[in-house]
Write a structure and sequence with these properties.
Number of helices of chain B: 5
Structural class of chain B: alpha+beta
Radius of gyration of chain B: 21 Å
CATH architecture of chain B: 2-Layer Sandwich
Largest interface: A-B, 35 and 33 residues
Structural class of chain A: alpha+beta
Number of strands of chain A: 9
Strand order of the largest sheet of chain A: 1-2-3-5-4
Strand content of chain B: 25-35%
CATH superfamily of chain B: GHMP Kinase, N-terminal domain
Oligomer: heterodimer
Order of helices and strands of chain A: EEEEHEHEEHEEH
Largest sheet of chain B: 6 strands, mixed
Number of domains of chain B: 1
Shape of chain B: elongated
Number of helices of chain A: 4
Helix content of chain A: 25-40%
Chain lengths: 242, 291
């Protein structure tokens, strides 16, 4: 993109970060009292809110019930005022449906669905100009807040590639520049990948580096989320008087 | 509305309590729950507000865009309302489930703003018949804890107060073609006067008495409610009865009087809160959902 250097000669990005640095993350669990679990996360300027209901009985057709596992149902919607130009439909369009399916795939890999047969777990994410990573991180915290057993945290991060360097945690400007983007959802303890998605062209020789940058960033996100959960549990146990 | 199932004993308990002017959480019949209002929470809007009324959580964003004035009102801009009932409020709102409630609330908002005095639409006009500001007011319902209409109207009023519309100038060329120029200073903007913006007060009839600001459980015990839209001076702009039950005329007059009384107090406190928040200036700590 003419006139906009995504990576300067000294190694600084547009917002002053280094190649492997994450944006500032602030998170809070238990935002809504009426839902089974809820969480809010701010990753730089991206804000995502996730709410979990379940496990509860299957709503709608009983025929969808799985005899040995729980059904994970996800919906993604973004507020109409969130993007630069006003969006007419908050959900139901292709991008929101695709995001919902990706979230579902990710969480089916992580939640121990065998423990709750014939039930349904609903995950609703409300995001601000959605990136997949913020949604997954918020949904992980919300599922933990609801007390639904999971194999491991699911931590997600995006990565890109500019001038021979892999960049971790892309901001909106960097995404809009049109280079290759990789979205990765990782289960940190085992190092297993729950979802991997890449847009635009990238030479396969560089894939290793970009994947490693995304994985490292996801592990950093895990450290942060772990701290948030421990803080929340500490506060909750103080209130309970333990 | 999101519903909650109550047993007969619980309903009787609530109804008897209301008779004695003592509700389940200790409030009187005309008391509101604790309301938290915060403006300017969403960064890329012209104005925004978040209201938390008990378990009800509403986020409103106002975006000002340029459009053409309506044919019958060439000197005025206009407001467009859109209400999105998010699935996070209750699983029933998933997919298109929340559309009915959303349309009902949006139509009510259109009605209460449908008079000349609520918002001065002439300030939104840029050049007659050609350009005007259209304010898209988007309401996002995040959590449903009873008394939606009141919370939404408070949030809309706070968001409109917070709205900053950039000042534009119309330059005319020699050929007569008009050019719109945005002012260079990003802080040079016009503010809307929200003196006469009404707020809705919902009065639910429970037993023989009525209550203000019902929770979900109290709404489940009430068969009929009256929505009264009141301005800060106590002028009623719109009135609507909702619910399956019927009301007799005397109780309607009583409820309207209560609505006017409570509405004036509500407006006074809202004004003081948003003015105090604004006086803290741009350096104030924004809490949002992290608080």
């Amino acid at each position: 993109m003419a006139g906009l250097e995504l990576l300067s000669d000294q190694g600084y990005r547009v917002d002053g970060r280094r190649a492997g640095e994450l944006r500032k993350i602030q998170a809070r669990m238990g935002v809504f009292a009426q839902a089974d679990g809820s969480a809010y996360i701010e990753q730089g300027n991206t804000k995502a809110l996730a709410v979990v209901y379940g496990p509860h009985e299957i709503r709608g057709s009983r025929a969808r019930a799985l005899p040995d596992r729980a059904l994970v149902n996800c919906q993604y919607s973004s507020a109409t005022f969130s993007t630069g130009e006003r969006k007419r439909r908050p959900h139901g369009d292709r991008k929101s449906c695709e995001m919902g399916l990706q979230l579902r795939q990710t969480f089916e890999a992580a939640i121990l669905t065998q423990l709750h047969p014939r039930s349904q777990i609903d995950i609703y994410v409300q995001a601000d100009g959605g990136t997949y990573a913020a949604c997954v991180n918020a949904a992980t915290l919300a599922v933990l807040d609801a007390g639904i057993p999971m194999r491991d945290f699911v931590c997600a991060c995006s990565a890109g590639f500019v001038d021979g360097t892999a960049l971790a945690d892309l901001s909106h400007v960097e995404e809009a520049a049109g280079g290759p983007q990789l979205a990765l959802a990782l289960l940190p303890a085992s190092g297993q990948i729950a979802l991997l998605e890449m847009d635009a062209r990238l030479h396969e020789d560089h894939l290793e580096r970009v994947l490693e940058a995304a994985a490292q960033a996801a592990r950093d996100v895990h450290t942060l989320l772990d701290r948030v959960v421990r803080q929340h549990v500490r506060e909750a146990s103080i209130l309970l008087g333990d | 509305m999101a519903s909650v199932t109550l047993s007969e004993a619980e309903k009787v308990y609530i109804v008897h309590g209301v008779q004695e002017d003592l509700r389940v959480d200790g409030r009187g019949r005309e008391d509101y729950r604790c309301v938290e209002v915060e403006t300017d929470v969403v960064s890329n809007t012209s104005g925004s507000a978040r209201v938390k009324l008990g378990h009800t959580d509403i986020l409103v964003g106002v975006k000002a865009e340029m459009g053409t004035p309506k044919l019958e009102k060439p000197n005025e801009g206009y407001l467009e309302f859109f209400v999105d009932c998010s699935a996070s409020a209750t699983p029933e709102f998933e997919g298109r489930g929340g559309d009915d409630l959303g349309t009902e609330i949006a139509n009510t908002l259109y009605r209460i703003f449908n008079n000349k005095s609520s918002v001065d639409l002439k300030t939104l006009c840029i050049s007659p018949r050609e350009h005007c500001w259209v304010l898209y007011v988007d309401v996002l319902l995040l959590e449903c804890g009873g008394n939606l209409f009141d919370a939404i109207s408070i949030a809309v009023k706070a968001a409109l107060f917070n709205t900053r519309i950039p000042r534009v100038r119309v330059l005319e060329d020699e050929e007569g073609s008009k050019d719109i120029e945005l002012s260079d200073d990003p802080y040079d903007c016009i503010r809307l006067s929200v003196e006469n913006v009404p707020c809705i007060v919902t009065l639910c009839k429970i037993g023989y008495r009525h209550v203000v600001d019902a929770t979900l459980q109290e709404e489940a015990c009430s068969l009929a409610s009256l929505l009264v839209s009141v301005t800060s001076k106590g002028v009623v702009t719109c009135m609507r009865k909702v619910g399956k039950g019927s009301l007799d005329p005397e109780s309607i007059f009583e409820m309207m009087e209560t609505g006017k009384r409570v509405g004036k107090v509500l407006h006074a406190s809202l004004q003081s809160v948003v003015h105090k928040e604004e006086s803290l200036g741009p350096k104030r700590q924004k809490v949002g959902f992290l608080g």
